Amino acid sequence: MQFLVYGSPSNRQQPKDPAALGKFMEESIKQGILITGGGLNRKETRIRTAEGNVSITDGPFLEGKELMPGFVIIKVDTREQAIEWVKNQQQLYGDGETSIVQIYGAS
User: To bridge 28 with a disulfide, which of 33, 76, 96, 98 should be the other Cys (CB 3.0-4.6 Å)?
Assistant: First the structure.
């Protein structure tokens, strides 16, 4: 199972110990849990189709406060393992809110 893991846009946390977070992420990669991660650009392109016509509009549309600060995709066997992984990651940040959403489709 794959999960999208992301922090709340209103909760831009910094790790308490960046080196410890780096080690946690490195171990997650070695274990095959962490698939990818990154941040999102505020510039957005919208592609709309209406009655066979396609229109393309470039942004930015998202305000910084609406944009998730970053994301990772993890691969685990169960939802409970995803929750446990996030709990361990959150300990490196402290108080805050993180969401997980299962991704359906090819792994």
Answer: 33
CATH of 2-103, one of 2.40.128, 1.10.10, 1.10.287, 3.30.70: 3.30.70
CB-based burial label for 36 (10 Å; 0-12, 13-18, 19+): exposed
Read off the pTM.
0.77
Q: For the chain, which residues make up each domain, given as ranges?
A: 2-103
- The pLDDT profile of the chain, 107 residues, written as one tens digit per residue, is 999 998 876 666 778 888 999 999 999 999 999 999 988 777 778 889 999 999 998 876 666 556 667 899 999 999 999 999 999 998 888 888 888 999 998 76
Q: Which long-range contacts (CB under 8 A, 24 or more apart) does 80-89 make?
A: 82/1, 82/3, 82/5, 85/5, 85/28, 85/33, 86/5, 88/24, 89/5, 89/21, 89/24
